[in-house]
């Protein structure tokens, strides 16, 4: 069968394309330029199982953008959405996030009577409530009501994070509303990852172009942080390959229908980063000294917020790889890519 992956050139989506190909699915990816399409074609040309093809969709925020791309596909992973904290106007993010999501669904309804399911890449940004102080555990039942309100009240003066989080929340709300309003013949699933970490395989020729989540770790690896920045807790993470597989399971397992799934492997901190960097890459300079005391590390974790990622294991059978593997292989891939 043929799966459409939107925004296939991105960090998580390129791994997701690979995961689908490895399971024997054929994949059509949407990209914004010929150059990005060719890069992926080349990356996946030796895959023995599924075949990769690409189509250009320049502006996902435009009505009818996906009308052609959706033709003949059996399922869709809608992953394209801007992820950065530098938007001036909230609409810079809202339009591609919301219209992109609704647009895929509308194009399917119009042009593809046989599609079975759409998986949307949402985020824990749609779940978390930044007014709730840790320790606290969030689950799939929770919705972020704070960020959309902040953007409504403050417009361009809202924080960059609020604008991004609101864009993800409103896009996922619009996703579910489409199903309620239209009762289409296909169904939907949402994947809600926290910070996504792990090796890069997508096109990225300079560190300045790294996607937001990997860029945050890269500055630790490059010794751009100091002891003052530690412990830098409060985040949860998932390995990019685990979240990619989560998308495959969500698209293919019947039980996923209509559900949201947090794909998260618990808290991670800057302290974890520097300990792992020191262990794996003793030659790297200016890495702040972490605290390896297990009591301290347990305390950091117990004081963190948690995005409970156990449902996807229970319902879809997704297993998480250990954090050491994620951090080590992310470091290795970045050192290889940028030659240091
Ligand atoms: P990337 O920036 O690497 O990928 C984003 C993708 O969306 C790229 O393919 C990009 O295209 C495309 N895109 C962005 N804006 C537009 C637009 N206006 N029109 C067309 N295409 C657009 O980031 P990630 O891989 O991290 O993000 C992928 C998805 O995962 C997003 O939906 C993000 O919100 C979500 N997510 C990410 C997390 C993380 O920690 N990384 C955590 C939780 C959710 P191009 O390559 O041409 O720029």
From TrEMBL:
Residues 3-259 form the NAD-dependent epimerase/dehydratase domain. Pfam families: Epimerase (PF01370). Keywords: Oxidoreductase. SUPFAM superfamilies: NAD(P)-binding Rossmann-fold domains. It comes from the Eukaryota. GO terms for molecular function: oxidoreductase activity, acting on the CH-OH group of donors, NAD or NADP as acceptor. Signal peptide: none annotated. Belongs to the NAD(P)-dependent epimerase/dehydratase family. Dihydroflavonol-4-reductase subfamily. This is NAD-dependent epimerase/dehydratase domain-containing protein.
